[in-house]
Amino acid sequence: MILAAAWALADFRTARLAKNTLLLSAAVVGLSVPLGAALALLLVRTDLPGRRLATALLGPGKGDKAHLIMGLIPFSGSEVVRDIALCVSGLLTQKLGGPSVIPPVPQNVLDYNFTYPAYWKPAEGPQRYRRALYGYRKRSMPDPVMSNFDAPNADFACARRVRSNTPLAALTALNEPVFVEAARALALRVLREGGSDDGQRADYAFFLCTSRRPVDKERDAVLNLLRSQRQRLADGWLNVRDIATGDPARLPPLPAGATPQDAAAWTLAARVLLNLDETISKK
User: I need a labelling partner for 275 at 20 to 30 A (CA). Which of 22, 23, 183, 196 fits?
Assistant: First the structure.
């Protein structure tokens, strides 16, 4: 085979044809990669007609899955995810500079640490809601919240963060104390600023979390969730004060015209909205 190739390339016309073919192939490959990436960006990250083309290619009702051609969509960043929840809810402290603040962590993280950090007293008041940039981090005790959202280990340098998208991250955003407090604050903000009925409030809450108005299907999903949670509260399956404040002996500071049931139901809905893929991901 080698002898045959050498014999064929001995002819200058064949050699020139082979050279042109290789150059053309390299040019096609070199152009197709950036053009393919640009097309994917237009289809997924913009509202240009390319999205409608993706909808037509994927079939009716599947246009919202066009992002699959981009692969895994990473979180906005462990620190940014927490700050998004605080900003949307209105809890984020805007102060710049100053000492680090100690964030809340589960008690078992402290108990099983190599040396129990007796100084670990979570911040209270406005200091508790400072940007994650100011959070105190112990090198031998990684913050489980930050770790679940891909924060690197502080034991060594990190040139590039890993990408993940796991159920553990969703559980963190649903149950971690600061996220629950953000959901309660978001519920009160929606009741205070969102309008007089649940339809207007659903639009406002969705806009706060995703920076866009919901389509009819999305609004209906939020309203159906709200109705189901109101029914659970009315049937006694959930304690209104526990949900709205975390304290069965205390009521939240309600806006005029709102009830404790409203605050509790919207707290449950806010937990879902703060956990949307579109809220916490680079999409």
Answer: 196
Q: Give the whole-angstrom CA distance, residue 255 versus residue 97.
A: 33
In this prediction, residues 92-113 reach a mean pLDDT of 86
Residue 223 corresponds to which amino acid? L
pLDDT(195) > 90: no
Torsion sign over Cα 250, 255, 259, 265: negative
Please, what is the average pLDDT of the chain?
Answer: 79
The per-residue pLDDT for 43 is 55
Tokens representing residue 280 in the block: 């916490």
The predicted model gives 149-163 an average pLDDT of 78
Q: How confident is the model at residue 154 (pLDDT cuts 50, 70, 90)?
A: confident
Angstrom distance (rounded) from CA 9 to CA 274: 65
Both tokens of 207, joined, read 């806009």
Contacts of residue 268, defined as CB under 8 A and 6 or more positions apart, other chains included, come to 183, 225, 229, 238, 243
Contact 63, 54 (CB under 8 A): yes
Length of the chain: 283
Closest to 208 (Cα-Cα) out of 73, 39, 114, 90: 90
Q: State the Cα–Cα distance between residues 256 and 278, nearest whole angstrom.
A: 31
Q: Give the model confidence (pLDDT) of 227-263 as tens digits.
A: 999 999 998 888 888 888 888 888 888 888 888 999 9
Full-prediction pTM beyond 0.90?
no
- Indicate the helix (H) or strand (E) that contains 56: helix 50-58
- Long-range contacts of residues 220-223, Cβ cutoff 8 Å, at least 24 apart: 222/269, 222/272, 222/273, 223/198, 223/199
- Residue 81 burial (10 A CB sphere; 0-12, 13-18, 19+): buried
215 CB-contact burial (10 Å; exposed 0-12 / middle 13-18 / buried 19+): exposed
